[in-house]
Design goal:
There is one protein chain. Helix content is 40%, strand content 14%. It contains 6 helices and 10 strands, in the order E-H-E-H-E-H-E-E-E-H-E-E-E-E-H-H. It has a 4-stranded parallel β-sheet, sandwiched between helices.
Amino acid sequence: TGTVYVIPEYVGTAGFMDVEQLLELQRAGWEIGGHGAHHLTSLSSAEREADLAFSSAWLREHGFGEQLNYAYPGGMYDENVQEQVARYFGTARSIIPDADVIGLADRYRLGGLSMYPDIPQRQLEQLTTEAARSGEWFSLVFHLFSAEPEFETQYPPERFEQLLDFLIASDIPVRNARDVWQLNLEAAGNRE
């Protein structure tokens, strides 16, 4: 399982999943979270509020739940953005390539490593193995899938399948952001 961050305006358009496909993923245990089409740091406070309210309402109206995870567009955020995101979403992640230590993660500053086709498969396997061994929450971010990538943010589906095969063979657990955040809260409670 994993988390899919959707830009509501793109759902059902060419090259993007439709609502039924997203519901199918949800039924399989995936989390459907929010994302936006514009960098929140470039919007006014009122524009951000409208964008976040729309994304949250769209997810709720289509049966994906409330207080889900959010992905900062372009990974960009600041303190004002975090405060506004917190009104609508339970957690938020960036594309800061740091792993988050379970029990110590910051709910609105979760990291994530953007996956690009030029990252060697062996390096990816080493990173995931080390994160699992260290008890870290290592979020891998796949922006778009394409059999013939034209842009650096497009990832070949066969490479993704190789990664899944490796994770299964190595017995490395994979969870959606909501479930890992719950593990984080439980670990944080045990630290007190």
